[in-house]
C-alpha cells in the first residue's frame, strides 16, 4: 500500500469515527436538554433547572453586560427581566422565518407543544434556547414538550403581531439565506464579494457593520461559516482553507459565478450540493446494488460532492468509495468511474469560484475559437509585408 493510500485510509477512518462520535454526542446532548416537568412554568422556575453554564451562554449571547459575577439565583432574575424588557429587540434582530413560524405554532397551543424530532427542528430549538424563550421539558407520561414561559407568552405574542418587526425578520431571513447559500457555493468568499453579490440580488446597499453583525449573531446559533484572516467567509465544510484559497488565487482571471436568488436559496438549504441530472444518474446506479439503501446512497453521493469541492482527485475518491462499496466486476467499476467523471465535470467547485469544470472549459474553448488574427487585406501592387521590397503579387501573393 502506497503512502498516499495509507494517508487516505487514515482520513476516511477519521471521518467515519468523527461521524459516529458526533452522532453519539448529539443524542446525548438531546436527552440532557429535556428537564423535568414543573408545577410552575414561569421563566424563573424554568431557568432554575438550567446549569449556571447554560445561563451564562444566554447572558453572553444577549450581550447583557455587568452580570457575569452574579450568582445563579441573581442571574436568573436578571435574565428574566432583561428578556421581558427587550423582547421586541431580541426577536426582531435574531429570528429567521422558520423560527418565527415555530414560535407561532407554540403560541397557538397556549405556549406548549409536543416535540416531533427532526434534524431541522433540533436546529431550531437549539437556536431558540440560547435566547431564553424556549424550554424543553419531559412530561410525566414520558413525552417531550417545548414550553414558552407563561409570563413571556403575552409579550411575545404582542411582539409578533407588529408588522414592522415581522418585516425586519423577513428581511434578515433573506440575508441569512443568501449569505449561507453563497458561502456553500463558493466555499471561501471575501466579505466584499459576498456583500456585492447580496446587493446584486436585493438591490439595496447594506451597511457593512449591519451585514457582518447580523451574520455573526446568526452564525453563533446556527454555525455555517468560519471567519478567516479577517476578510474571508469560509464554509464549515472546507477541509483545507489554505489549499482552496491557493487554488482560487491561481485562477485570478475567473470571477465568482453569478447565481439567481432561487439557486442561492436552494444552496442555503443543502450544505452539500443541489442535485443535478448527473447526481441523479449516480443515485439510480447505486440503488441497484444489493444492500445499498436509499439513505446510504444519498449520504454516499453527498460525501462524493464534498470531496470534489475539497479538491480531491478522481483517483482518491475512487479509492475512498471502494472501501464502502464492493464492485463485483470491472464493468461496474468502469460505469461508476464514468458517472463519477460526469458528476465531477458538472459540480460547482470551490476552486473555480462556483463554476463547473465544463463551464470553464466551454468558455476557454469559445475564447480560443474567436481569437483568430484578422489580417489586413493587401493590394496586389502594394509592397509585400514580408520585407522583400517586391510587390505583393510577385511575392507572397503569387498563385
Question: What do you see in this structure?
Answer:
This protein has 399 residues and is an alpha+beta fold. It has four domains: 1-33; 37-159, Arc Repressor Mutant, subunit A (Orthogonal Bundle), CATH 1.10.10; 187-268, no CATH class; 277-355. The protein contains 18 helices and seven strands. The chain has helices at 3-33, 43-47, 52-61, 72-85, 87-94, 97-108, 119-129, 153-159, 163-186, 191-202, 208-221, 241-249, 261-268, 277-286, 294-309, 314-322, 330-345, 357-370; strands spanning 35-36, 112-114, 135-138, 144-147, 188-190, 225-228, 232-235. The strands form two sheets. A four-stranded mixed β-sheet has the order 1-3-4-2, with helices on one face. The protein is globular. The chain starts with a helix and ends in a 29-residue tail after the last helix. The model is unreliable at 371-376 (pLDDT under 50).
Amino acid at each position: 500500500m502506497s503512502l498516499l493510500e495509507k494517508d487516505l485510509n487514515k482520513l476516511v477512518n477519521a471521518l467515519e469515527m468523527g461521524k459516529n462520535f458526533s452522532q453519539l454526542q448529539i443524542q446525548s446532548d438531546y436527552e440532557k436538554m429535556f428537564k423535568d416537568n414543573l408545577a410552575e412554568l414561569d421563566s424563573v422556575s424554568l431557568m432554575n433547572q438550567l446549569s449556571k453554564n447554560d445561563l451564562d451562554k444566554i447572558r453572553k449571547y444577549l450581550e447583557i453586560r455587568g452580570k457575569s459575577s452574579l450568582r445563579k439565583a441573581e442571574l436568573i432574575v436578571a435574565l428574566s427581566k432583561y428578556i421581558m424588557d427587550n423582547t421586541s429587540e431580541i426577536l426582531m434582530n435574531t429570528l429567521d422565518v422558520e423560527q418565527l413560524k415555530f414560535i407561532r405554532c407554540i403560541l397557538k397551543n397556549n405556549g406548549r407543544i409536543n416535540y416531533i424530532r427532526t434534524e431541522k427542528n433540533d436546529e431550531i430549538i437549539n437556536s431558540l434556547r440560547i435566547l431564553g424563550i424556549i424550554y424543553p421539558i419531559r412530561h410525566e407520561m414520558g413525552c417531550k414538550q417545548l414550553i414558552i414561559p407563561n409570563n413571556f407568552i403575552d409579550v411575545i405574542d404582542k411582539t409578533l403581531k407588529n408588522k414592522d418587526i415581522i418585516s425586519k425578520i423577513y428581511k434578515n431571513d433573506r440575508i441569512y439565506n443568501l449569505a449561507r447559500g453563497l458561502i456553500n457555493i463558493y466555499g471561501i468568499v471575501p466579505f466584499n464579494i459576498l456583500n456585492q453579490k447580496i446587493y446584486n440580488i436585493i438591490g439595496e446597499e447594506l451597511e457593512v457593520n449591519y451585514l457582518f453583525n447580523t451574520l455573526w449573531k446568526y452564525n453563533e446559533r446556527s454555525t455555517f461559516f468560519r471567519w478567516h484572516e479577517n476578510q474571508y467567509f469560509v464554509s464549515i465544510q472546507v477541509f483545507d482553507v489554505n489549499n482552496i484559497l491557493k487554488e482560487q488565487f491561481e485562477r485570478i482571471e475567473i470571477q465568482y459565478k453569478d447565481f439567481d436568488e432561487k439557486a442561492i436559496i436552494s444552496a442555503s438549504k443543502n450544505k452539500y450540493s443541489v442535485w443535478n441530472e448527473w447526481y441523479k444518474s449516480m443515485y439510480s446506479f447505486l440503488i441497484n446494488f444489493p444492500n445499498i439503501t436509499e439513505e446510504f446512497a444519498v449520504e454516499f453521493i453527498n460525501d462524493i460532492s464534498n470531496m470534489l469541492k475539497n479538491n480531491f482527485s478522481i483517483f482518491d475518491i475512487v479509492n475512498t468509495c471502494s472501501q464502502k462499496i464492493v464492485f463485483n466486476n470491472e464493468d461496474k467499476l468502469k460505469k461508476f468511474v464514468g458517472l463519477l467523471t460526469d458528476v465531477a465535470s458538472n459540480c460547482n467547485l470551490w476552486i473555480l469560484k462556483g463554476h463547473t469544470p465544463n463551464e470553464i472549459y466551454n468558455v476557454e474553448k469559445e475564447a480560443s475559437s474567436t481569437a483568430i488574427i484578422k489580417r489586413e487585406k493587401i493590394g496586389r501592387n502594394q509592397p509585400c509585408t514580408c520585407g522583400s521590397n517586391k510587390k505583393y503579387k510577385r511575392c507572397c501573393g503569387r498563385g
